[in-house]
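Q: I'm writing a short explainer about Sulfatase N-terminal domain-containing protein for a general audience and would like to include a description of its predicted shape. Could you first generate the structure from this sequence?
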Amino acid sequence: MTIPAALAMALIGSLAIEAWDGAGRRPIGRRPAELALRLAGYALLTAFWFCFSWRPWLAAFSCLLTVAILVVVSRLKQAVIGEPLVFSDFALLRQVPRHPDLYYTRPFTDPRMAIPLGVSLVVVALWYWIEPTALPEEPSVALVALIGLPCLLVGLASELGTGRPAQWLAARFPRPDLDADCARYGLPATIIAYALRWRREPPPPEAGDDISLCQSGPAPVVVVVQLESFVDPTRLGGPALPLMETIRTRASRHGRLTVPAHGAYTMRTEHAVLTGREPDSLGFGRYDPYLSNGGDEPASIARRALRAGYATVFVHPFHRDFFHRAEVMRRFGFARLVMEEDFAGAPRIGPYIGDEALAARILAEVEAATTPVFVFAVTMENHGPWKPGRLDGIDDPLAQYLHHVAHTGRAMETLIAGLKGRDAILCVYGDHAPSLPTCRPGFGDTTTEYAVFGFGTFRDGPQRVDSTAPELGRFLRSLIKG
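A: Of course. Here's the predicted structure. Afterward I'll give you a sentence or two in plain language.
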């Protein structure tokens, strides 16, 4: 009776944790089918931990601890980004030890991380010693059990991805609806179901038609700059940025840009602009578009530019491995990558390479080009977290952000001045709003700012046209096509 009792404790305890978390905010679903699927998620989680220990009470406690951690992390994420925890977040875990600051955590060598982890390992080791194993005493039977249970779980996951089980799962999770599904079925079941649905989804359709510029020919110089966490600072109560006045009076097109996320997930906006794909067309892959195709997008702007005879250059002053950017950008069609190692000696403003150094490098790439050139750049200076110690004498997060955004404005003014006299197009846009205490989810309906400048024969009168990230991508593709 030990195993059923431990399983019952895991199911009841996990249900209580999620009921407490949702009380008054997101009440749990009470229909029998919804409760059954929620409990099945807890049972699978318990079975997963049981595979490692074969100790029922340790597996039950591990399930409870896992559900509690998921609930806490999901609540924190909801407060900062406006979205519950999702399966694709686990693909980012391998980056946390290498870039802890970017994920608002600490290195494992920090005592505040190392001591709790060490204590946890000691507790688990003691538990292994105190609780007897549930494995059969007969060695051959025990071996069959050790191999059989993991194979059973893998087989179950495989079955849920094919045939009638897959249809059953698709009927309950027809499309992504994170908040509603977490309320109905619970966080563990939703994470598992979304992962299974994502793995079996067919490839998304090609992006829609280009948005024509009605121009006579393609632009020989196209520069697109994705600005980290960029919004008009006056929306945050900051001072007016001279760049915004330049945009209003000089940009051919400008306005608010609706992006796929708030406060994070740069890759969602990046993918939308480079491919022109609507997030809804990606199905469950919308949460991390690079997980599905890894940049293998035949209709991307960079591939179109390559086919049209352009030199394609990606510029980003940060690690090659972050988001697997080097590999992804090569697949997108960028023949040349300029990354952190190419900025050796460039000034850092806080922890990252300054935006003005990035602007200078972009202009150098344009100047050196002997063919039409398409440059796609991603800034880094104003990446979070904004916390004490980042800038000397400035500890307030908003003040730090405004300090950096002033540099972003000057860098873009430098680009505008440097492209004058050429037949060129410059597009700048914010990837998402900053995750600041004064800029919580719901701010501006996930909008940032964008602007498209024309130079030489491509100069045109200013007009405000609010847009979305995929629409901007399809607009930019027409610059290459002409």
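A: For your explainer, you could say: The chain has two domains: 2-199, 221-481.
Q: Perfect, that's easy to follow.
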